[in-house]
TrEMBL record:
Residue ranges of every copy of the RRP12 N-terminal HEAT domain listed in the record: 27-240
Native species: Ogataea haglerorum
Keyword set includes Magnesium: no
Coiled coil: none
Domain RRP12 HEAT, first and last residues per copy: 353-647
Region (Disordered): 1039-1061, 1132-1187
InterPro entries reported in the protein's UniProt record: ARM-like, ARM-type_fold, HEAT_RRP12, HEAT_RRP12_N, RRP12
Full protein name: Ribosomal RNA-processing protein 12-like conserved domain-containing protein
Length: 1187
């Protein structure tokens, strides 16, 4: 494929495109754009007069001669025209033949010199000059860079000028120069060397500049401007390093300088140094640069700071992490894995630091290296990887385990938490490969947790390590090292492991749970049966039983041995428990559901885990599904159906979900047999209920009751409708036909849901379309008989039907639209939402089949047929405006408002105007419900309709609005005001004031004043906030200032924080034992003494007094005078009729009202009850005399 670089035709096309955009700006309002276009037109005419072709060469020569006209020797006499000439030279030079740029290099640079060398050159002029110089330098060959011809103006001299401009104080100039340096160094001319000939020049310039600035910084510590200059230099270094042009000999001094910068307290300097390092690492991205990268790593390791250097060590550790991650991703990931033990040895020394920030940085460094630099493909086992690679990685893991095991000794006690976090990252990354080597770590950390010392700070991180081990190497390995010992009173009990197992088990052995963990349930159930039900031990035993059962669903989440462990005996045991123990149904159903769902999801290849895919191929999951389908699904469904029929409505959700999972994998013949059985039971139940007159027309009294059998069977049929074979569809339609007419809310709901469920898949949609005429007739027939509570299910079905409605059944839309419109006023939220959505879909269907016939005669023989269109649908909906009841009229207006909002852009302007004017007339109605709906329509119209239309009818609209406001002022005053405010925002206050009735113009004036007050208040609030912000900033500066007084520094203790060792007289501390860590704490150990009951009571006679802790603190902190004054203020006073009352101060109670203070003051405090009108009382005379 041709590129712009090697195809002159493509180059000319791109240049013509850019110049063409400039030519179109001849009428631009911006003078600079207009000037560019005029100059280009003049050059084009000149070339045309000279009969020269418009090419990059002719343009370049023309604009170069134009530049000559603007300059007088070394000075620029016309800056504007010179800027235009340089702009076009910058635009054209990349497309100019490189041979021309090489031959005329000295002449062109000489003409650029006035712009580049002058201190008074404007930034745009400089940027264009830099662009031209960039193109010139990119075109030069190796010989020109060496200056073999001894030119006075050589390419290196031009590049030196660019390097100086890359330090310019103007951001855009500086950035353009740095980009030019990067582009030049990235384009290496043909020659024996892979490095650019000017790389040494650039490296020396940048390095010397930053070193000089660092020396000045040491001498002028208060000069903050030096930091800015250093950042500019570091940006230049980053530009050079990203071009892969930093000289090999200057890597060591560069790393040294960058690390010095990184240890400063200025975050911008640190960030810039890291960016330079990042550029250095990113530039070396292939095998060619491997030696260079290794040298950089060796240099960085040689520059290792002292472990207690709290300034340099964190920065150095961050750079090490970035370097190794870049080495892994860009050069060689395998060799990076082989370097891990050496890195752990070097970085591990920082765990001995006295500074906590250094220790945390060391931990984060190793975590980042493990997480981001270890490629997962090297953790696979043969044959997915080479045996040699497998063995080498195994050795690396063993070495890491030995190193981290050493880190767990008392020597590294201060870093125990950070080391545990590193171990967590290793276990999470290496997974099962780490299992054989990290059992000793689990033993040590498990003992820390088993000691259960109160307040031991490593308890949480110990649990985190064990949790990751459970998910990575599996519960079997963990429990071999840390057994539960629930029934062995002589060994250390670890019941605390049960919640960790529950939250972290996945893809484990189900057989291990059945044989090793589940038997504990029988032991504890026997203890519970024999013990006192009120005793604490029995409650603990019951909790353990629940926790053991809670593990079952997680062992069923993609188990490794499903076909071997999930036997008929175990399935029968679970089935018996489903019948016997209602409390266990949720857990067991969850487990049964996960058995299916986890295998189905995994078999689809959704999970991207290459290690898991090698251990557990997708074919295994498919075999598991086949095993469950062939041997367990039918029997389990029978059990679940029976349990479902015995469960109350409120507790059925999880059972339905489990049934759905097994219906999904059941064989068609089993589904058909089960479906036939359910249908026969339903028929018998309906017959029996009809004979005994059990069919009810209202909702059941409580969801806690078990519903009648017909409802249960209908639930099962709704669930099965999606999965039954196609030959069962006739039976489904027959059930729908019979049950939808039954006057029972619950039956009707489920009847509609049968067809909705069937429409969820393609085969069901085809079947519905085959019976569409019958279904539509039945829906129209049951319009009046459908009960109110079943409307939501009915509209959900109508919505689904409309979506697939064929063109020859469009008559169904006008037949049912009135029911949909009236349902937009339903009190049921689901029904309202479904009605609105159905209206939108109906309109979309009329648009989709625009021009198709609508056979209205099929609904009413006297009605003429019409043609489908959006306007026709609006006309159909508008018929509701002449409804017999206010409810119907308001519903029609609300529906039209929703449709106008959705489809106003697709309607004819004239039709919209007529509709708008028609609805506006309802503002004169005397019915408040109609007016409320009309106000909503007006709001939508103002927002959606064309401004001209609203403006033309503004006078009539405002007249009607104010009339409605006056007649119903207590109901619509705020709504009308809100509409007028919208009109003012959209059309301006002058037009609104002109159109509003004269007697109501004071409302507009009121709105203007309110806006002015709000604006003034907002500006004052902004000023106040700014002042408060300044006060807070000063306060924080004083509080967190680095410079403290010398006296305070003298008072502060120095050195490491104090540590305490807890030991008893019977067992002195063994410092050689690794469990010593559990006896060392940063908090002073307390002596626990047994408290007597006397100390727990406040009075001698044993009366218990409970006081609020805050109240106690308040009393203790106040002196006697304050307490007395507070008591007087809070105490009771004598009110009217000598009654005692308490004074209530403003702000004593919490105000949950979100309204503003002004609004809350203006509103009277009233309840929702009807109250008598209160008489207005005259204001009492208030004396100003103080007592």
């Amino acid at each position: 494929m041709a590129t712009f670089e090697d195809d002159p035709l493509l180059l000319d096309m791109e240049l013509d495109l850019k110049l063409g955009r400039i030519r179109t700006q001849v009428n631009s309002k911006l003078e600079n754009q207009k000037q560019l276009s005029l100059v280009l037109q003049a050059v084009d005419e000149n070339l045309k007069d000279q009969k020269q072709k418009q090419s990059p060469v002719t343009y370049f020569v023309s604009f170069l001669s134009l530049l000559d006209q603007c300059c007088d020797g070394e000075n620029i006499k016309d800056g504007n025209l010179a800027g235009v000439a340089l702009y076009f030279l910058d635009l054209v030079s990349p497309y100019t033949p490189k041979q021309l740029l090489r031959s005329k290099f000295s002449e062109i640079v000489a003409r650029l010199a006035p712009a580049l060398s002058s201190d008074e050159s404007a930034a745009p002029l400089l940027r264009s000059s830099i662009g031209v110089l960039e193109s010139l330098l990119v075109a030069q060959e190796t010989g020109a860079w060496i200056n073999s011809n001894n030119y006075k103006i050589s390419p290196k001299r031009g590049l030196t000028g660019l390097l100086q401009l890359s330090m310019d104080h103007r951001p855009k100039v500086r950035k353009r120069a740095q980009e030019a340096v990067h582009k030049i160094l990235s384009t290496v001319p043909a020659g024996p060397s892979l490095e650019h000939p000017a790389s040494t020049l650039c490296g020396e310039f940048a390095l010397n500049s930053v070193m000089k600035l660092l020396e000045r910084q040491q001498q002028e510590k208060k000069n903050k401007e030096l930091n800015t200059e250093i950042i500019h230099n570091l940006q230049l270094i980053a530009a050079i390093t990203k071009a892969n042009s930093w000289p090999l000999k200057q890597i060591l001094p560069l790393c040294d300088v960058l690390l010095v910068v990184a240890k400063t307290s200025d975050q911008y300097l640190v960030s810039s140094s890291f960016e330079a390092f990042e550029g250095l690492f990113q530039s070396m991205n292939d095998k060619v640069d491997e030696d260079k990268f290794v040298q950089v790593l060796n240099v960085l390791f040689d520059l290792k700071p002292a472990v207690n250097d709290q300034h340099l060590a964190p920065s150095w550790l961050a750079v090490i992490a970035r370097a190794l991650i870049s080495y892994s991703k860009s050069v060689d990931a395998y060799k990076c894995v082989l370097k891990l033990p050496d890195v752990f040895k070097i970085v591990g020394h920082f765990f001995l630091s006295e500074n906590p920030n250094v220790r945390i940085s060391a931990s984060q460094c190793l975590i980042a290296i493990i997480t981001d630099s270890v490629d997962v493909k090297y953790l696979l086992e043969p044959p997915k990887t080479l045996p040699e690679v497998f063995e080498n990685v195994e050795e690396i893991i063993e070495q890491l385990s030995e190193l981290t095991n050493e880190f767990l000794t008392v020597k590294y006690r201060e870093s125990a938490k950070e080391i545990c976090e590193v171990i967590i990252s290793i276990l999470a990354k290496f997974g099962s490969r780490a299992g054989p080597y990290f059992t000793s770590h689990l033993q040590i950390i498990g003992e820390w947790r088993s000691n259960e010392l109160e307040g031991f700070e490593l308890n949480q991180v110990s649990e985190n390590v064990i949790a990751v081990a459970i998910s990575s190497i599996g519960p079997e390995e963990v429990l071999k090292t840390l057994p539960l010992n629930l029934t062995n009173s002589q060994a250390t009990g670890r019941a605390w492991l049960l919640p960790l197992l529950r939250d972290n088990i996945r893809h484990a052995s189900l057989g291990f749970y059945i044989s090793e963990i589940l038997p504990n349930v029988e032991f504890f159930e026997q203890k519970i049966a024999e013990g006192n039900p009120e005793s604490m031990n029995i409650k603990i035993f019951a909790t353990i039983v629940d926790q053991i059962w809670s593990l079952l669903p997680h062992f069923c989440d993609l188990p490794t041995d499903l076909t071997q462990s999930f036997t008929d005996d175990f399935a029968s045991k679970l089935a018996a428990l489903l019948y016997e123990k209602a409390d266990s149904r949720n857990t067991i159903c969850h487990a049964l559901k996960l058995l299916v769902e986890s295998n189905v999801t995994y078999s689809l290849g959704v999970l991207e885990d290459v290690i898991l895919a090698q251990k557990f191929p997708l074919e295994e999951a498919k075999k598991n599904i086949e095993y469950l389908s062939a041997t367990k699904a039918s029997k389990l469904l029978s059990v679940l159906f029976n349990v479902f029929s015995q469960t109350s409505m409120a507790q059925r959700g999880f059972i339905l979900e489990t049934i759905d999972a097994y219906l999904q994998i059941s064989k068609p013949e089993d589904l058909s047999a089960t479906f036939d059985k359910v249908c026969s039971i339903l028929k018998q139940a309906l017959d029996d209920e009809k004979e005994t007159d059990m069919i009810k027309t209202d909702e059941p009294a409580a969801k806690s009751s078990i519903p009648k059998l017909s409802i249960t069977m209908m639930d099962l049929i709704v669930l099965m409708a999606k999965y039954v074979p196609e030959f069962c569809y006739n039976a489904l339609f027959s059930i729908f036909n019979q049950t939808v007419k039954i006057a029972d809310v619950q039956i009707q709901k489920r009847s509609y849901r049968i067809i909705s469920r069937l429409l969820e898949h393609d085969a069901g949609q085809k079947a519905v379309l085959n019976f569409i005429s019958n279904i539509l007739s039945l829906l129209l027939e049951t319009t009046e008989t459908t009960m109110t509570a079943a409307k939501s299910a009915r509209f959900a079905l109508i919505l689904d039907i409309i979506k697939i409605l064929p063109a020859d059944n469009l008559h169904f839309i006008p037949a049912v639209v009135s029911e949909v419109i009236i349902s937009t006023k339903s009190v049921n939220e689901k029904t309202r939402e479904s009605a609105y959505e159905t209206l939108i879909v109906m309109a979309a269907k009329m648009v989709e089949y625009e021009g198709a016939p609508v056979k209205n005669s099929m609904n009413d023989p006297e009605m003429p047929d019409s043609t489908a269109s959006l306007q026709e649908f609006f006309t159909i909906c508008s018929a509701g405006l002449v409804g017999a009841t206010p409810n119907m009229i308001s519903a029609a207006i609300t529906s039209l408002a929703r449709l106008v909002y959705e489809y106003h852009a697709k309607l004819d302007i004239q039709f919209l105007s007529e509709l708008y004017q028609t609805v506006e007339l309802f503002l004169t109605s005397k019915n408040r419900e109609i007016i409320k709906a009309t106000l909503g329509f007006v709001k939508v119209a103002i927002l959606s309709l064309p401004e001209e239309m609203v403006a033309q009818n503004m006078k009539g609209l405002l007249t009607n609005l104010m009339t409605a406001s006056h007649e119903h002022k207590n109901h619509f005053k705020s709504k009308v005001k809100h509409i007028i405010e919208r009109l003012i925002r959209k059309f301006g206050v002058d037009l609104v004031e002109e159109c509003i009735p004269e007697e109501d113009r004071k409302l507009v004036a009121n709105i203007k004043k309110a806006k002015a007050r709000a604006k003034k208040k907002k500006s004052q609030a902004t000023g106040t906030n700014a002042a408060e912000s300044g006060v807070m900033s000063g306060y924080e500066a004083a509080l967190y200032s680095d410079s403290e007084s010398e006296e305070e520094e003298e008072d502060q203790p120095t050195g490491r924080p104090q540590q305490y060792i807890s030991e008893s007289k019977e067992m002195p501390l063994d410092l050689l034992d690794k469990q010593t860590l559990t006896h060392i704490s940063s908090s002073k150990p307390k002596k626990f003494t047994k408290k007597t009951l006397e100390n727990e009571f406040k009075t001698k006679n044993g009366k218990l007094i409970i006081e609020d802790a805050e109240e106690q603190d308040d009393v203790l902190n106040k002196d006697s005078i304050d307490a007395y004054v507070e008591a007087v203020r809070q105490g009771p006073i004598r009110g009217q009729k000598n009654r005692l009352r308490y004074k209530h101060k403003k702000g004593d109670d919490i105000d949950w009202d979100e309204e503003s203070d002004n609004e809350s003051k203006s509103k009277p405090k009233t309840s929702n009850k009807v109250q008598k009108p209160q008489r207005k009382q005259k204001k009492k005379y208030k004396s100003n005399r103080r007592l």
